[in-house]
Amino acid sequence: MTRDEDWQRDAELLARWREGDTEAGAELYDRHSATVYRMFRTKVPDQAEELMQQTFLALVEGRDKIREGTSVRAFVLSIARFKLIDQLRSLTKGRAFDAELESVAAVAPGPSTVLAKKREQRLLLEGLRRIPIEHQIALELHYWEGLKANEIAAVFGISHSAMRSRLSKARQLLEQAIVAFAASPEERDSTLGGLEAWAAQVRDLI
Asked: Which terminus of the chain is more solvent-facing, meaning fewer CB atoms within 10 Å of its CB: N or C?
């Protein structure tokens, strides 16, 4: 299915769902639940299921607010992003919190590589957790979900050019984190040299 066909299918399902077709709503859930789950699983695993429920409840409540021409995927991922940031903010116990500056590792320290089977996978996951949350989300949507910069921009509500700049900066920060935490030059080079392949493997594990 092409991207245009994918978008059109979502639009058709949304229209049917708004008219009372519960099976159309269930299909929309099936089409997007895995992506939403991955967003939560690598950052707040203990709250992933609850945040999933909150996200799709918000979709149910907001389905009539999705404007014509707006991607259902972008809409639901935008909800998930806000739910995630609110959850991480709650963990700071009232102190100032900035998702563009702080990492998951700083806000919610804990094991992050339990799913990884290979050193490069563990290093990639740890590197992602060490970059600012907003950058981590953008990179995961790119590497794991195959979204292009303009599609990720719609999730964040910023311009295409701004997202291209953010992705470029995010890649630089990820590379720096991988270099800093690699156990050896061989592990570093293997991870950086096959970043997209390692990211695809991690995605399949989640």
From this structure: N
Per-residue confidence band for 111, with pLDDT thresholds at 50, 70 and 90: low
pTM: 0.91
Return d(Cα 138, Cα 128) in angstroms, integer: 11
**Domains by residue range for the chain, with CATH:** 1-97 (1.10.1740.10), 99-206 (no CATH)
Question: What 8-state DSSP symbol labels residue 132?
Answer: B
Amino acid found at 9? R
For 52-78, b where at least 16 C-beta lie within 10 A, e where not — what string? Answer: bebbbebbeeebeebeeebbbbbbbbb
